[in-house]
Write a structure and sequence with these properties.
With 254 residues, the protein is mainly α. The chain has helices spanning 51-64, 87-90, 95-106, 122-137, 143-165, 173-182, 185-193, 202-226, 234-253.
Amino acid sequence: MTREFAVPPVVFPSGPNPVAGTGVQQRRVPTAPFQPQRPSSSSIPFMSFDIGSAAASTSSASIYGGPIGGGGGSMPGSGSFEDEEPLLDELGIHPEQIWNKTKSILNPFRVNPVVHKDSDLSGPILLYMSLCLFQLLAGKLQFGVILGWIVVCSIFLYVVYNMLAGRNGNLDLHTCTSVIGYCLLPVVIFSAVSLFLPQIGGVRFSIAGIFVFWATRVSTALMVALADGGDEHRSLIAYACFLIYTLFSLLVIF
């Protein structure tokens, strides 16, 4: 048996106000959100600038209290630029020291080991970039190869000397890298000269032998002077240096 339920009709009034006593719940009409009044004199909405008042407050602060923040002079903790060290000195790059070390390599018969006691890598990096540049002018892109050979040769010379000296060896890897890097100067000069030499011929090998002898003599003198007891193993150190710079010269030739 089915039952019928009486459903009251839903009435939507068209008027703005509800009818009292009808019991019909009316829907509220949404109102617009609050909007602030925009000043007519400002061209940017919601923003207005009073330049005159800001200038007046700044001038009054500077007259009565000095700079803004209450200080009467410079900011605390700020020093003069004249007291600051040059940027190159802060980075550990000393151009005068690099120039003195480079000049000491130019004469293979009178090497000054005193300037090389303070080892650095700024000069070797400069000579490395010069060698790579000359090789690039010759049509050889060998930046990674030369850098890898410098690292391997530095480790090789470090291991060879400390094995010869035993417990008395005081030569560190930083000094070996610095000496090998500065003694690359003859190879760099040979790389620049080889741009004007014929690719095939005995002249190229003869000039390469001269520069290899130059680099070997200088590096051997520096290694013997900087390391304690190096004079006893001069011939073996010279042979290791000769192999190192022969390798670099062959890189330039071929």
